[in-house]
Design a protein that fits this description.
The protein is of the alpha+beta class and 117 residues long. The chain has one domain: RutC-like (60s Ribosomal Protein L30, Chain: A, 2-Layer Sandwich), CATH 3.30.1330. It is 25% helix and 31% strand. The chain has a 6-stranded mixed β-sheet with strand order 1-2-3-6-4-5, covered by helices on one side. The longest helix has 18 residues. It is globular and about 40 Å long. The chain starts with a strand and ends with a strand.
Length: 117
């Protein structure tokens, strides 16, 4: 019996993996249209839905890694990110520039871990 839960598993990835009460998620924008603010909001909305469905929420995020294709997008992304997080609940975070993402129109991808409630 495995103590690892996998949700939405495909041959290539799982939508979520849970181990020892820690949820692991990765999300990309719903579309390749829009500026960094729109794409960031799409990603965060999806992450919030997943966290809720898995028994967690934004206040329980432990670590986030944000991948941007252009560091000039940091200010716009940060504005949406900061408005999305509950006050006093900022997780450990890394933000890095990457050469590209799977869809050339995507400007952001976010990986995070969160504690289950």
């Amino acid at each position: 019996m495995s103590d690892i839960e996998r949700h939405g598993t495909t041959a290539r990835y799982a939508d979520a993996v849970i181990h020892n009460g820690v949820i692991h998620l990765v999300e990309v924008p719903a579309s390749s249209d829009g500026d960094i603010r729109q794409q960031t909001q799409e990603v965060l909305d999806s992450l919030a839905r997943q966290l809720d469905a898995l028994g967690s929420d934004r206040s329980r995020i432990l670590m986030a890694t944000l991948y941007l294709t252009d560091l000039a997008d940091c200010d716009g992304m940060n504005a949406v990110w900061e408005a999305w997080l509950p006050p006093g609940c900022a997780p450990s975070r890394a933000c890095v520039q990457v050469a590209g993402l799977v869809d050339p129109g995507w400007r952001i991808e976010i990986a995070l871990t969160a504690a289950r409630s």
